RNA sequence: GCACCCGUAGCUCAGUGGAUAGAGCAGUGGAUUUCUAAUCCUCUGGUCGCAGGUUCGAUCCCUGCCGGGUGCGCCA
């Protein structure tokens, strides 16, 4: 990575110039914000100037004089208030380019210390269809898992499905009293949902129904054979459907350890926490309270009310003896730490659950868990009114519905092109473009901001969209299809045209971008980068004929195409987006 | 009441303690008998919610306010 190498050189220059660096100071080199000045830049002289009370420009000149970068840069300049600007040399860029075009890791170095990372994402509920609300967790989680794995971590993906809970009282009651077997066979989830909705409505009208549901739930929890069988069938039917959706989306999990998996661990866990004094009885329930180890404003177990800090406990056992979300999460952490030796656990779950995770993480730490637990939060998907989509009010849009519509629109566009592709080929192209469009629409956004759900944005085929990126890839493949015979991409390369140079620099930045994504768990950095790369390639493509050129120029351009092709395929793959050879 | 997230172009959204704040859509005017136009190139469009503060430098950090969203003991 140029950025890392230049940082090292800068560090060396400080020593060579005899500059005493203040404690904790490391020079920062970044990709240039304005390409007129260079390819990379550093503000180290300005930061240092402040701390050493020295003139930043003079300091920059002093550093520049001590800098040894002849093998990398054709030019280093001091500009403005004291910026050091680096312009890469053509040979250095060409060498890097050859590396990208011939390397399976496309020039992205692996991490020095590989960690075991458990990624918890998607987590749909049994007997409920996935809706647009699941888009964020599913796509962000899948992408982060792919990226972490790509740069060398050991990644374990776990779909913590909601297969246990109070809703099963209603579903079992409905199953017994009003299930339509024919409809169940035709569309299991749809039938389960309508049964659930009907019973849910009935409970609101009639308390007796509610009581029946509660007793069905208790029977299930006590291991009643009939109810257990119904529950298992619900889980089986739902998972079967989920697998189909995940298959269409090209998403795989290493494990499907749902909430029910941890049932037997809950009672002992609560007992253990009581015994250790981490949990206590309160108003009939068992809760975790503050231990006063942190400042009140940082304590997840305290809340301020009228200038007084009041308890905001985390309940792990209800007064009726039942267990909760937090209890299951604590048991899940135990399992992941013990069985998988997780160094880190990433929870890709919506921002509204921030308090829950702060409490759970704090409770786990008190139990001696040292694993780094991170809540990778994301904003809500809003309806047209700017308010959250509500799951239960029926206002939401089904995930499958969105995907199918996207595939259909992509298919229409493919049909309009007339390039002699078979129906099967067009179907596959439409699937890749349709699912890619929905994924890209999600992943190109900052995960923390709320956004309004928009069919047009999800399904658009122009502009900053998956088809735009895929088209750039298709253009690279088209060139190699037309090429006669094998090419060697190892001969001499020379970058002459400005468009060639811009593309080469962009390609070199893939490594930096990929690593940066994991600093803040933000896949949109990669999405934005790939859009810029595609844009740069499209411009290059218009400006620089490849097959019609000759000699070194032709070889250079072919190498640029091959490198672009690999970076796009790899980069899109890291977003969970597949590619096609034609479109 | 308290806490967290958000407020950037007509719309939807990027962005960073640095140099003249970007993109897509919409609007405008061009480019192709194509290495695939699902493309490229022009132009138009901004008091980065408001007010202070810190800094050589603030859209970014701090404080206060205004506006929107979310969460806060027995759902998950």
Per-chain topology:
Elements: H1 2-16, E1 29-31, E2 40-42, H2 44-52, H3 56-66, E3 73-79, E4 83-88, H4 90-102, E5 116-120, H5 133-150, E6 154-158, H6 167-178, H7 181-186, H8 188-205, H9 207-221, H10 225-249, H11 263-275, E7 279-282, E8 285-288, E9 302-305, E10 308-311, E11 314-317, H12 325-340, E12 344-348, H13 354-366, E13 372-376, E14 381-382, H14 399-415, H15 423-443, E15 451-452, H16 455-459, H17 466-482, H18 498-508, H19 510-517, H20 523-543, H21 551-574
Parallel strand pairs: 5-6, 5-12, 12-13, 14-15
Antiparallel strand pairs: 1-2, 2-4, 3-4, 7-8, 8-11, 9-10
Helix pairs in contact: 1-3, 2-3, 4-18, 4-21, 6-8, 6-9, 8-9, 9-10, 11-12, 12-13, 14-15, 17-20, 17-21, 18-20, 18-21, 19-20, 20-21
The chain binds one RNA strand of 76 nucleotides through α2, β9, β11, α13 and α14.
What would you say this structure looks like, in words?
The chain has 583 residues and is an alpha/beta fold. Among the domains are: 2-88, Gyrase A, domain 2 (2-Layer Sandwich); 167-249, no CATH class; 399-574, Isoleucyl-tRNA Synthetase, Domain 1. The protein contains 21 helices and 15 strands. The chain has a four-stranded antiparallel β-sheet. Strands 6-5-12-13 form a four-stranded parallel β-sheet, sandwiched between helices. Strand 12, helix 13 (354-366) and strand 13 (372-376) form a beta-alpha-beta unit. It is globular, with a radius of gyration of 28 Å. The two termini are 33 Å apart. The protein binds one RNA strand of 76 nucleotides through helix 2, strand 9, strand 11, helix 13 and helix 14.
